[in-house]
Design goal:
The complex is a heterodimer of chains A (314) and B (347). With 314 residues, chain A is α/β, with parallel strands linked by helices. In chain A, 30% of the residues lie in helices and 14% in strands. Classes of the chains: A alpha/beta (314), B alpha/beta (347).
């Protein structure tokens, strides 16, 4: 996938030179191994700073909202679905974005990679679908498929759902059981479920990185930041912490694309997807809905259809 | 300075003895990360890591701390009166704090212990704590302590410094508080040859190759830096989460909140973050730092300019590298520091 970069640069140069866009949102090389930084490129000469590899894990759709300019954006499958969601929700104007689509083969989980070696990783490169890391002066080659982020390993929409141009041919989509873990939690007793979620969120430091990394979380004032009235306590009380996570997940119901930005951003490695994925599964089961695939269909939670399930009405 | 030797075979016995007179906090592995936790009866400090994921600042300055409790039940005589809650300031020791994190406690002390005001909660916890450092022989690639007025064997803020040397620890006795702890441990107080420490220190310092330049920060004009053109660019990728501030050992900002459940209320102090818009929101609705770039600028200006000018003690950063490692979008304080240090306004 790192071979995409030449095409990304070529398209970006053309768009900026022709004045088709005012700026490009992409990634530049990070300062530590396995990290890149989202960046804004306004000048043709700066296009050379752009990079593409398996560490472009942030969801760039997060940087689109409120933009008054015409913007080119490099979009993986999940990013593109969030662009669609942003357009449907009137956050983004379709004619203001030029989507440079990336058929994605997945992003790597840097913690998974780190856990494979006994020491600090000092170098990273990739070729085809192999990852080459340096640790204690020695190189080690790993199959990228073995260290994919969990959401990427079960991704069924690797190709962008919306694009103006693609950086390569489409990649093959997989058929996979996405909800094995959710079914396991569903099968737990209430007490076990409570213990599971108590444990899941026990290390949360309330930095809100999960919320802020999420392109869906754009409320001008989040409910946890409301001070009059104040809905949620601010301390490390575990009920307040879970209230935040559960309510945030519900706000993302029918909108979440399982891009994994929340989990990547969490400094404590909390798999907050275990809430959003359950709601994603419900939307699929009840409404046959997957977010961000089409500009022509309204999401299930902002529309009514006579065939919507009503079995919750007793 | 006195240096004693603890045979590693005697280590567990001493730790066990210390648990009789101190609450011991030390690195333990929980889930994927090492963090400081109160040691359980049979647990030993786990030094098999470069540094803990989070700093131990919460031991002295908890993320949430109940200060008062009260009732609003008017049938009760003491309604609407704030009552201090019982607090435990019995002796505690942090075993294995890295020199950078210990130095950060000294920096934070400058805020909580001033001529005009002394924070009773922070100071009581601080005074109850003995800081036992653990010298870094294998620093991380993101450590830049040697150019942040600190170092892998730095002693500021420590009562004892442990140096891992093969089958034993060499212990530098820095304060009387440290010596008292040693007496309680039963490890003995016999002076030993410590000539090896200097060369180990030099080796460790040489391993730290990541460096920052801070020499010109003080002479820069504050308003020039404040209006420098690079802030928009620095702030672009920032998602305005509180990660950098919460993982930073030197960030000290807090908020005070009342919480009432039924008729019972508590007044709590919680960590706050200058990255959050709510941090500066006025009751009028006006927010002097309403924009993202203003908040990002504030964080770096505070650490690298305002603090430098106010205290003349260098930067408000010890080079632990946690914000570099944990920022979800890879904003790197080392780069921002360089931009500030070399900035010259267009004339």
């Amino acid at each position: 996938m790192s071979s995409y970069i030449d095409k990304i640069k070529e398209i970006s140069k053309k768009l900026l030179t022709d004045g088709q866009v005012d700026m490009i949102i992409g990634f530049k090389k990070g300062t530590i191994p396995m990290m890149n930084e989202p960046c804004l490129v306004k000048k043709v000469n700066d296009v050379n700073h752009l990079v593409w590899d398996s560490n472009c894990r942030n969801n760039l759709a997060n940087y689109l909202a409120g933009n008054k300019n015409k913007v080119g954006i490099i979009a993986k499958g999940c990013d593109s679905r969030n662009i669609v969601t942003g357009i449907i929700e009137n956050r983004i104007k379709r004619d203001q974005v030029y989507v440079i689509g990336v058929p994605c083969t997945g992003m790597i989980d840097k913690e998974k990679v780190s856990s494979l070696v006994d020491g600090e990783i000092t170098g990273f490169s990739e070729k085809d679908e192999k990852i080459i890391i340096t640790c204690a002066g020695e190189e080690q080659t790993i199959n990228k498929a073995d260290v994919l982020q969990e959401n990427c390993s079960i991704c069924i929409h690797k190709n962008p759902s919306i694009y103006d141009e693609l950086v390569s041919g489409l990649v093959e989509e997989q058929t996979v059981d996405r909800y094995e873990d959710i079914r396991k939690i569903d099968a737990m007793s209430s007490e076990k479920k409570m213990n599971y979620f108590d444990d899941l969120f026990s290390q949360c430091i309330r930095c809100y990185a999960c919320r802020n990394a999420c392109p869906l979380c754009y409320c001008p004032t989040c409910f946890v930041d409301e001070s009059n009235p104040q809905w949620v306590g601010k301390s490390q009380d575990s009920i307040d912490i879970k209230t935040f996570h559960i309510l945030r997940a519900y706000h993302c119901a029918g909108r979440c694309t399982d891009c994994g930005a929340c989990v990547n951003a969490c400094p404590m490695g909390i798999n907050v997807r275990m809430l959003t994925k359950k709601l994603e599964k419900d939307c699929l089961d009840k409404f046959n809905w997957e977010a961000g695939l089409s500009l022509d269909e309204r999401p299930p939670l902002d529309t009514f259809k006579p065939e919507d399930p009503e079995d919750f009405i007793k | 300075m006195k240096v004693i030797k603890i045979d590693k075979q005697q280590w567990a016995t001493g730790i066990k003895s210390l648990k009789n007179s101190y609450q011991l906090y030390a690195p333990v592995k929980e889930k994927n990360y090492y963090n400081f936790r109160k040691l359980k009866k049979d647990t030993l400090p786990d030094f098999d890591q470069l540094n803990t994921h989070l700093s131990p600042k919460s031991i002295v300055f908890p993320q949430s701390k109940v200060m008062f409790e009260y009732t609003i039940d008017e049938k009760k005589d003491d309604h609407h009166l704030m009552k201090e809650v019982g607090k435990d300031y019995s002796p505690r020791a942090i075993i294995g704090i890295r020199p950078c994190d210990a130095k950060s406690v000294s920096l934070v002390k400058m805020n909580f212990d001033t001529v005009d005001y002394k924070d009773p909660y922070w100071l009581s916890a601080y005074e109850a704590t003995t800081f036992i450092g653990f010298a870094c022989n294998n620093p991380s690639n993101t450590c830049f302590c040697t150019t942040a007025n600190c170092g892998p064997y730095h002693e500021e803020g420590l009562d004892l410094l442990l140096v891992d040397s093969d089958d034993h620890y060499l212990v530098k006795v820095i304060t009387e508080k440290g010596e008292s702890l040693l007496k309680a441990s039963g490890w003995g107080l016999e002076d030993t040859d410590a000539s090896i420490i200097e060369s180990m220190k030099n080796d460790a310092e040489a391993k730290i190759t990541s460096k920052i330049n801070t020499d010109k920060l003080h002479e820069k004009n504050t308003l020039d830096l404040h209006s420098a053109p690079f802030w928009d660019n620095v702030a672009f990728s920032c998602i305005n989460c509180g990660t950098c501030t919460f993982v930073c050992p030197t960030c000290w900002c807090f908020d005070i909140q009342d919480e009432v459940h039924g008729n019972d209320g508590v007044r709590t102090r919680n960590w706050d973050s200058c990255m959050f818009p709510l941090f500066t929101l006025h009751t009028t609705g006006h927010n002097p730092r309403g924009e993202k770039h203003q908040r990002v600028r504030q964080r770096f200006m505070h650490k690298l300019k305002y603090f430098v000018d106010k205290y003349d003690k260098g930067i408000m950063c010890v080079g632990c590298g946690r914000c570099v490692r944990l920022c979800p979008v890879n904003i790197d304080i080392r780069n921002v520091c360089e931009k500030m240090n070399i900035y010259e306004p267009a004339s």
